[in-house]
Design goal:
The protein is of the alpha+beta class and 444 residues long. It has helices at residues 8-16, 18-23, 33-55, 64-76, 143-159, 181-187, 190-193, 248-266, 304-324, 350-364, 422-440, and strands at 80-85, 89-96, 101-107, 126-128, 134-136, 166-173, 199-210, 214-215, 220-222, 224-233, 237-238, 273-282, 288-289, 292-301, 334-343, 346-347, 393-402. The protein has two domains: 8-223 and 345-440, Aminopeptidase, CATH 3.40.630; 224-342, Alpha-Beta Plaits (2-Layer Sandwich). It is built from eleven helices and 17 strands. It has a seven-stranded mixed beta sheet, with helices on both faces. Helix 3 crosses helix 11 (422-440) and helix 10 (350-364) crosses helix 11. The protein is elongated and about 80 Å long. Its cofactor is Mn(2+).
Length: 444
């Protein structure tokens, strides 16, 4: 996931809000000792914590070892810890007097990839996935950074209890990579069994951003994501007698091409939208016309309106293309939207993001802020913690993970070659998150 910044509208908000920012300025920056304390904690404890997590990744929804370790670490710091929330999720609570409630979230699952980073602590882990197949596992998206930084942030905020007032909720979330973990925790009573937050914070390490930098969008951070499956039906026959059957490969190929008209001719060209056919399987032999083709899609959008337009358009294009090619009514494609791997867009609350941005700039220096444009349409299920109906104000930011000289050649996320520079990634994440939390929990 690359660094993300505000949309044009949000940038106008930033300019217009400078006077308001002065009136609602962040509290005094933490003592300069904060950075030194974090660096010392990394050398003494967090480096080993990160190494352990990196060597022992676990797949989505199966993070039993990681969950137990997070519970142990947070309990050891004095937090009230509950496990098994939404599956393997961990919730840690620290009550520190009157004031707002702030939730800090870190995701903890890995990906089914064989690590080829060349790092000395490269993962060799394997795990039987939910589909019953054994797979290699690696942290190819930096979730090991996130959970290590959560532990570091937990320590800093515990040590600085005299500097803030309110309630702190820390969560280690399962299954972000399959975008169902956040929803599972919410559905398991996260906001009824535990204090409901006024604010929610999270960050993502970014291999395509220089270490030591932080990006805090004032608006859209991550796109919505929906998984869609299309089954194209046909009538099998001999490949030399195509007129005796209905060729689903021809129909599927036409659907793939026609789906791109949704982006090019249906959506406003200034709006973010992606329809990608990531998997297509059909046929068993060169001279046999099969009776079925299976397709898997990912659909991305930056607004609820465009999301609906794309999803409804997939239904229409699939059916219309098949009808145009003579597929009979009883064999029209079956289109199924995933009810598991789906999430709305993650959109930061503008005024709260401005408070966080101002606090980070004041505490860490204005040059730490990175304002490069969005470079893709990655998704994040953090959105479920900050849905409009929840009333929770969310801020999701990014932290650089690669030496500046190596950013242009760094492997992308979800690559077997993915790697980040652990120490600056973790320590910058801890510092930025601690500063953000202190700004929202400041004593009045």
């Amino acid at each position: 996931m690359r660094a993300l910044i505000p949309t044009t509208a949000a940038l106008l908000l930033l300019a217009a809000g400078s006077a308001a920012s002065a009136q609602t300025a962040a509290p005094a920056a933490p003592d300069s000792a904060l950075k030194q304390s974090i660096l010392a904690d990394y050398d003494a404890r967090l480096a080993a914590v990160f190494d352990d997590f990196h060597r022992n990744p676990e797949l989505s929804g199966m993070e039993t070892r990681t969950s137990a370790r997070m519970a142990e670490l947070l309990t050891g710091l004095g937090y009230e810890v509950t496990t098994g929330v939404g599956g393997t999720g961990v919730v840690a609570v620290l009550r520190n007097g009157e004031g707002p409630t702030v939730l800090i979230r870190a995701d903890m699952d890995g990906l089914p990839l064989q690590e080829a980073s060349g790092l000395p602590n490269a993962s060799t882990a394997r795990q039987v996935d939910s589909d019953g197949k054994e797979k290699p596992v690696m942290h190819a998206c930096g979730h090991d950074v996130h959970i290590t930084a959560l532990v570091g942030t937990a320590r800093q905020l515990m040590d600085r209890k005299d500097d803030w007032s309110g309630t702190l909720i820390l969560i280690a979330q399962p299954a972000e990579e399959r975008i169902f973990g956040a929803r599972a925790m919410v559905n398991d009573g996260l906001y009824s069994r535990f204090p409901k937050p006024d604010y929610a914070l999270a960050f993502h390490v970014d291999a395509q951003m220089a270490e030591g930098q932080v990006s805090v969008p004032l608006g859209i951070h991550s796109s919505s994501s929906d998984g869609v499956e299309i089954v194209v039906h046909g009538v099998g026959t001999h490949g030399a007698y195509p007129h005796l059957g209905v060729d689903p490969i021809l129909v599927a190929s036409s659907i793939v091409m026609n789906l791109q008209s949704l982006r090019s001719r249906t959506v406003n060209p200034l709006e973010g939208a992606v329809v990608t056919v990531g998997s297509i399987h059909g046929g068993i032999k060169n001279n046999i016309i099969s009776d079925r083709v299976d397709m898997q899609l990912t659909v991305r959008a930056d607004s609820p309106e465009v999301r609906t337009l794309l999803l409804d358009g997939i239904d229409r294009v699939s059916r219309g293309t098949a009808e145009a090619l003579g597929v009979p009514e009883n064999l029209l494609p079956t289109v199924t939207r995933s009810t598991l791997e789906t999430t709305p867009a993650t959109i930061n609350d503008g005024p709260t993001a401005q408070r966080v941005r101002d606090a980070i700039a004041a505490a860490m220096g204005p040059n730490v802020l990175n304002d490069e444009p969005r470079a893709g349409m990655g998704a994040e299920d953090f959105a479920y913690f900050v849905t409009p109906e929840s009333g929770v104000k969310g801020v999701y930011f990014d932290v650089g993970g690669t030496p500046a000289a190596e950013v242009e050649t760094a492997a992308g996320h979800h690559s077997p070659l993915f790697k980040i520079d652990a120490k600056p990634s973790v320590t910058t994440g801890v510092e930025a998150m601690t500063v953000a939390a202190l700004a929202l929990l400041a004593k009045t």
